[in-house]
Amino acid sequence: MTVRAQAEAPPLPETLVGRTYWRIFWRRFMRDRVAVGGLIVIVTFVAMAILAPLVAKVVGHSPNQLFESMRTELGLPLGPRAHFWFGADQAGRDLFVRVVYGARTSLTVSVVGTGIATVIGVIVGATAGFYGRWLDTLISRVIDVWLSLPLLLFAIGLSTVCSASPNGCLNGLLQPGLSLVIGIIALFTWPYIARIARGQVISLRQREFVEAARAMGVSDMRIVLSELLPNLVGPIVVYATLTLPGNILFEASLSFLGVGVPQSTPSWGRMMADATEGSLFTYAWWMMVFPGLFLLLMTFAFYLVGEGFREALDPRGGVS
Amino acid sequence: MWRYVVRRLLWVGVVLLVITAVTYAIFFIMAPVDPAILFGGKQPTPAVIQQIQREFGLDKPVWVQYGLFVKHIFLGDQYGWPGLGFSFVTRAPVRSQLGSRLVITTTLAVGASFVWLLLGIPVGVISAVKQRSFVDRLAMGLALFFVSAPVFWIGLMFLWVFWFKLGVAAGTGYYGPAQFGFFTWLNHMIMPWVVLALVEAAWYARMARASLIDTMGEDFIRTARAKGLSERRVIFKHALRASLVPMVTMFGMDLGLLFGGAIITETVFNLQGIGQWAVASVFTGDLPVILAVTLIASFAITLANVVVDICYAYLDPRVRLA
Amino acid sequence: MRRTWIGTRTVRVALVVVVVAAILAACTSTPPTSETTSGAPAIKRGGVYRVGVSTFGNTDGLDPTGEYGIPGWGVLDALQRTLVTFRFAPGTAGTELVPDLATEIPQPTDGGLTYTFQLKPGVKFGAPLDRPITSADVAYAFERIDSRPLVAQYGFYFFGVIQGMTGSAPKPGPISGIETPNPSTIVFHLTHPTGDFLYRLTLPATAPIPAEVAKCFPSAGGYGRDLVASGPYQILGSQAVDPSSCSTIKPMSGFDPVRSLTLVRNPSYDPATDTDSGRAAYVDAIEITVDTSIADIFEKVQTGALDASWYDLPPATVLQHYLSDPTLASRVNAFPNGNVQFISMNLTHPPFDDVHVRRAVSYIIDKAALQKSWSGPISGDIATHIAPPFIYHGQLPNTDPYATPGNSGSLEKAMAEMKLSKYDPQQDGMCDVAACKNLVLVNQNIAPWTTMEPFVVQDLAKIGIDVKPRELETGAAYNTVQRVANDIPISMNANWAYDYADAYTYLLPMFDSSSIAASGNPNTSLTGLTASMAAKLGIPYPAGGVPSVDSSIAECETKTGDARATCWVGVDQHLMEDVVPIVPYLWSNVIVITGDSVTNFEADPISQGTTFTQVAVSNNLPAPG
Q1: Cis link prior to C128 (omega < 30° from 0)?
Q2: pLDDT grade, residue B39 (50/70/90)?
Q3: What global pTM score does this model have?
Q4: Of C377, C451, C469, the CB nearest to A91
């Protein structure tokens, strides 16, 4: 997914940083009704994630509570009914409460993972772009090779190894579960961000205001911090927003392949993976439909907002 | 030109060496499963484990093993060329299993790419031509829908609806045309093709639309219009060709990626392709298979890169002018 | 530790095809009653029996010397004959040891140290040899077991038992304790009396192997591709092999280790030489196809593309489909296979170094919920001790030292036990100390283990034990638990079955200190660990020591007959009540779904699947090749 988002990288901002820049950006964004709709959906999801314990309290079921009455003699889960609006899963847990909690996992993993990747990507990419020469060549080549590595296979191997040892890997730094999934997502995403950052820095470097600062003898560090970075924020934010839904899907896919978060942490991908175990979904359709719909809605909303950001940044852009 | 091609191909070789070395190191150091113990059966005594390690060559230092691996790739091993070794899990030469896996993955990749090109590009072009119309909005909305949905979810929903509920499509599994007949084969491939293609087609439609709209604003289009050419001619003769250039890049890369296996589609539809093999071998710690699959996948990706770059030079009028 | 897909089989005991209705009606406590189909007159011969399986799971490429996997043994059964065997018959008749290649079952002489067998005349190898089987061929099988490069995985049944066998020979060569005075006589000299030696001669590695072919495969696994049959079936394409020299021997076409295995009738097999074993060999061919999707296998059984499943457990959705339709219910064949599923606790790791904590765990586990996660009573009886009751010939009725109402666990009893432990200083029935927090629980990453996991976690939490589950691929889970240095406190991934019908094959590997090994350790609870062993393995040793059952196991091993069974019962009960290293929760069944083309089905409980020589089909398909 990330490959594509990169292909649609946003162009440089027309306007340079100024007090009115963000205000203009925001006004443009608010005019895009579809994107605002997406933002409302996201805000709802965030609220749902934060208020999940409250929802559980109102419903009266906790996400890991087991209801034997919700399983048949053969251990099959029962479908939607009063008090169990989305039915039960294979262990007799309330799927509605778990789906609500699932928003937490999706948001945490994708936002933190994308955040870490953005920080690494900007640092590496800006370094390469700013210093150029052999450092740029080296970093670019590393990124090339990195993107050809079978990272998904490494991820599966890594999660198996980290689960095997009682303390996780790297002296307990990587525990199987949330932190490992976040780590994997960051490992996957940073090179794309680095490429964008590098490209932006290279073209900014040649602009007059940077040349001027150079001529005035301003230090490299200062140039990067005060001249380049503020100009990078716009495109990077837009790009990160467009990467986010891809990472939400990525977390779900990892969980689907069995490399995700532990069972006690409800995850939409994992719920759907459970639904495929023994083709359970052909009977318990609710185990696939509800988590899938929520996941779809969240990624859809993030894409809409990302598109909105991009258009607001560059109104010439194509896709509405 | 030729020097460029040779240089790029040499770079492919370097990348492959680096990739296999890293893969080797990672899976050797952090082998999730010790194949020797796995093989020892119910009660693997230390003597049995030692013997199996010797038999698999696992008792040698890592670099010696990696050296042998590289040597076998170039010179072949007892099972032929290129030497990909012996699977720890199936106890059969990796090469003997490679053929059928590649056939399935290629079938999936080629079939799906036809579907997504035939679906994605026309939709994108129509959307671009009828910009901001109802058709455009509907098409782009649908595209965003398929981009947002996880592939496995679409696959499972299709299976549930079309196979389980309606019974109009065949279920999962690969049925070779030689053994089961052409129509059985086709019937079992249609859903995987469509599911994989829908997501890709959504990206291509968006790309095609954006690219065409971009191109329509270029000077040479204005010139063509000024010459009095019909709008249809302008779009199909001039704009479309130029706007397809970035699509070629993307298509080459995507196809390269797919030859490394569409892991999720293969898993959902139980197609025994490269991707499913890769995942299974990581789970079971089957190092020779992991390496073989890594090699194939990265070879496909890096080679696709080179081919795309070379094609680019031929396709893009701007590149040719320069 | 036995894997669900790599395991072992054995003896042909109690071949009971339990009709599902009977199981459901009788529920859990009654011993399986037999309602077999083999009594029906005139079963039609011919046709092809087609089964699907998710993986062959061969541990040694079907080479009989090293093969230690369930599927492998099931197939070898149809390909090979051994000196003695268990009768191929359902019910109690199947527990009877009968001569197969031997003319009769010998009485040991020399104080139980010497066994002399006479071979039947006229028994021949199949293609491409078609020559008489001699005592040298049987001796050669033992020479292969003794040779180190061939990795005989269960050679320990013979090493140190037959004189001169140590398992360290560099290549097959004469063994001092095995004599072949003439082509039809073979004599075994043992180092000490071994009560179950004749049982061990039913193991597939002891079947005759022709040296002229097998010598071409000096390392493990290779011979499986060119196995020369002695039984009623042979691998398709056997005739095409040219045995004149090693270089001309190519793999038989009927066996592709990743895709399929086809067996056809062995023309050299003469039923007149096989009157004792009861082999029927109804079908003309057996076709086994690998399909990694279990769902697809059952789908194909339903549509008739396959005749039956093999040892893959049908998912609950499939069971639901069959059991909810009275006309289909009879196609579900469930039978016990000697497998015990359990939760293992590490006797050296706090808090499980305290027997009261282990007893509290035994009380709190909701076995009924675990059984339901396995698809309910059809999947097996709730386990109340270690080895299943039929192993003890009825001497150990379903006694349960940790009985709870409805097998659902008892918080009251668990808390009472916990209060006796040193880890409950507050005396509130909950473990209150840090030792009970953040304990790693190793589990498999597939159903039903993943389904059971939340139940185990919830149950343990009730008595203050907080576990962190780690879901691993089956092989990785075993690897992790069986590596002693990992010091895993508690695991729920494991199960164990037996190699032949004697409790020795459970109790020795699972609980004897001699089985403890740094890696690949089957004694995961570390029962019998000594301080010096702990130091060598690099794990802490608890101040209170670790209980041992070594001496009782050694004592029982020398006994025979009923005294032996009684002795094993004592060890089992002692382990359950005083040592408590594991919580057994299910004696799981194998469930085979057959299509309507199957007219006779018999399942060998120990082979975890189908007795291929006893099945019959009405599909009239021509045999391939």
Answers
A1: yes
A2: low
A3: 0.87
A4: C451
